[in-house]
Here is the input.
Amino acid sequence: DILVTQTPPSLSVTPGQPASISCKSTQSLLETDGKTYLSWYRQKAGQPPQLLIYEVSNRFSGVPDRFSGSESGTDFTLKISRVEAEDVGIYYCMQGKQVPWTFGQGTKVEIK
Amino acid sequence: EVQLVQSGGDLVQPGGSLRLSCAASGFSFSSYWMTWVRQTPGKGPEWVAHINQDGSATRYVASVSGRFTVSRDNARNSLFLQMNTLRAEDTAVYYCVKYLGRAFASWGQGSLVTVSS
Here is the structure.
């Protein structure tokens, strides 16, 4: 199975400041169709996860542009340019290159 | 608006069976792969199974293969997960999810499955 490792496990951020979460895959997530299948989710307490970013850097419908995704080989990054109070939650990355799709361990984001 | 409304979660004894259902609306159900994802409280999500548009192709995570069966009824816009020989470690909230490519775009509200004697 492809493993994805997220860091840091938790993050405390002052509103208005940037935040960054990393995800490292044990294998390339580049598929033969030319797409790289790494997505990001945020889960708020008591809710299912919500898709933020798919295929590394594509924002899902309705996701604010303060969220962005990037890659460097097997290293992936989710950046929040200016954290807002509503951004609290647990963030997960997920690889969709090879079944079973697998999630990172999660990063808990708190607001200072 | 995409809606996935789930039903069927319950308390079941080890070795028992349960069937989860998911009623879809707001999109062309028969055009999409669908999936089930589960999550144990305090842990990350785990992909469980998926099914292609006409139901001819399915895949499962190793821990449920041979015990769980995913199916769909496109005429009724419904997705199902038949769970047999349930174990304590199957206890989780199960989500019905619509794909966007290979990302999990839309989620149901979740169904709690508790396996305990």
Observations:
- The radius of gyration of chain A is 13 Å.
- Chain A has a mean pLDDT of 97.
- The CA atoms of residues 7 and 25 of chain A lie 12 Å apart.
